[in-house]
Each structure stands twice: as C-alpha cells, then as structure tokens.
Amino acid sequence: MSWLFFSVGTALLWGTAELFYKKGAQPQEKFSHLKICVWVGIVMGAHAIFTLLTQNINYNPINIIRYLPVSLFYIISMAFSYFGMRFLEESISDPIENTAGVICTLLFAIFLKEEIAPLTWVAIAIITIGVLGVSFLENSGETTRKKQLGKKLAIVAFCMPFVYALLDAFGTFLDDAFFLIDDVAKSPLVDVTADTLEDVANTSYELTFALFALGLFIFMKSKKVKFGSLPQHKDKILAAVFETAGQFTYVYALGGVDAVAAPILSSVCVVSLLLSRIFLKEKLSWKTYVFIAIVIIGILLLAVSEEI
User: Fold this and answer.
1) Which of 129, 146, 167, 221 has its CA 20 to 30 A from that of 301?
2) 3-state secondary structure of 140
3) What sections of the chain are H helices per DSSP?
C-alpha cells in the first residue's frame, strides 16, 4: 500500500507547491514569474545531477535533444502559469489548469482515434459547464480585476491558465503517445530499457529546465534585473522544492491501483484551493466557488473514468 502513501504525498506536495508559487508570483515584481522559472530550473537540475550520480540509468545526453519537444511544452506552459499567478487567485487558476486532462483526452481521440467512454464524456461536459461558469462570472462584473489591472491585462491574465492547460496537454499527449510507450524499442529516446525509460525522460526534462533557467538568468542580467538577497526568494525556492519532491513521489504513486490513485493525484487543485483559502485568505463569490466545485468534480470523475 506504499503507492497510496505516495499518491496522497504527491497531491499534498504539488498542492503546497501551488501555494508557494502564488506567494512568489508578486504582481508588482515585473520578472517574478521568470525568477520562479530560474529557481525551478536550479532545483530540477540539482535533482537530475543527483539521479545521474546515484542511479545507473545509462544516460545518453542526446536524449535532451530527443525529448526537447515534450520538455518545451511543459516548461513554457509553466512559465505562462507563473505569469497568470501574478494577477489571478490560485482558487481560479489551478482548477482551470487542471482541465489539461480533458484536452489531452480529446487529442488522443482526434489524432489517434481512441474511443471516449460515455463516463468520460459526462466528465468533460461537467468540466466545460464549470469553466464556462467561471469565465462568465469573471467577465460579467463579478470581479473588480478589470478595474484593478485594466481591461487588456485582466483578459491576458485570465487566459494564462487556459494557455497552460493547452500546452501541458500537448506535452502529455506527446509523452504518452510517442515517448513513454510500452514498446521501448519504438521510443525516440535512445539507450533506454523498460526500467529506465521514465527516469531518462524525467532527467532530460529536468536538465532542459536547468538550461532554460540559465538562459533566463542571463537574459535578466542583460536587462539589469535585480535579484535581491536569498531570503527574498524563499517562497520561490520552496515552490521549486515542493514541485520537484512531488515529481519524485509521483513515479512511485503510479505503481498503485489506477482507479484509486488517479483521483487522488488529480485532487491537487482541491489541496491548492484549501491552502489558498486558509493561508492566502482568498475570497471569491459563492457563485464562483460553485462553478469551481463543478470543475473539480468533473476532474475527479475524469480521472476515475480514464482508469476504469
């Protein structure tokens, strides 16, 4: 039953990471979202090096290039997410971002002609209703975001979770359809076995994120962006640590009963919602909370339907 422990642990770690992402994404700090990317890259790069030093995965550096399409989808989606967090309540952005599973399911149906089960269609319909409801309230005077940010920035900020969901879904689609496949011989990754495939893919992703972070650091230095002292980055660093720790436990969580583990892993937005309400004191209208609850119910139902 250790997989159950790791499943719950993953949901708690990633939910906590979302809390610290939000705390670190300061709206008045112009490059805060890029600074978060830098710290995530540093921590992930350190974890990748640790993996290479402690595990015999026969890593071939060419896999950084081979896995690049997937890595870029994931990394760029996260950068957009961090930007949106500067201006949106975590209670809104995280449930919308978790609709990536819906988009991924549709991508498999469209491009690989996979059949969608009736229960999955029900889950998709529920999520769609919830998202449309949140969107309607966001743009019908239920919030003061347009007055605070201006119409253009308010619209851009609200679009960020949707951009994240779309890009993350494409990354997951490529991952599941072409890279992390049962027939290892057909995977684009080289020098891998069934036992090392996921570790090699994850290490490639983490090393790419580290290089991406280095590029961002150089870019910001060229713009003479001040980073400040290390304590000023506490929330950003903690977010990166919790993100990477959750990624580690996620691998072990996958060894469990899918129909049980999947909804637990998909409950990250529930954890995030609770933590945001408790620690960030986020308050939304009751109507918005109703539609957010509908989205979360749909996400959990989708996770169950995909594993039955």
Assistant:
1) 167
2) coil
3) 2-24, 32-54, 62-66, 68-85, 90-97, 100-111, 118-138, 145-149, 151-174, 197-222, 234-253, 258-265, 268-279, 286-307
User: What tens digit of pLDDT does each residue of 164-208 get?
Assistant: 999 999 999 999 999 989 899 999 999 999 999 999 999 999 999
Tokens for 63, please give them: 């896999």
pTM: 0.93
Domain residue ranges in the chain: 2-307
Decide: helix, strand or coil at residue 49.
helix
Taking only Cα atoms into account, the Rg of the chain, rounded to an integer number of angstroms, comes to: 19
CA distances from 149 to 108, 143, 144, 154 (A): 38, 11, 9, 6
Instruction: Match 């580690």 to its residue by tokens.
Output: 248
Q: Measuring CA to CA, how many Å separate 15 from each of 25, 104, 187, 283?
A: 16, 21, 31, 18
Q: Could you report the per-residue pLDDT of 196-238, keeping only the tens digit for each?
A: 999 999 999 999 999 999 999 999 999 999 888 888 899 999 9
If we measure between CA atoms, which residue out of 153, 174, 208, 15 comes closest to residue 97? Answer: 15
Its sign, for the CA torsion 52, 53, 57, 61, is positive
- Rounded Cα gap, residues 175 and 177, in angstroms: 6
Q: Which of 209, 254, 253 is nearest to 48 (CA)?
A: 209
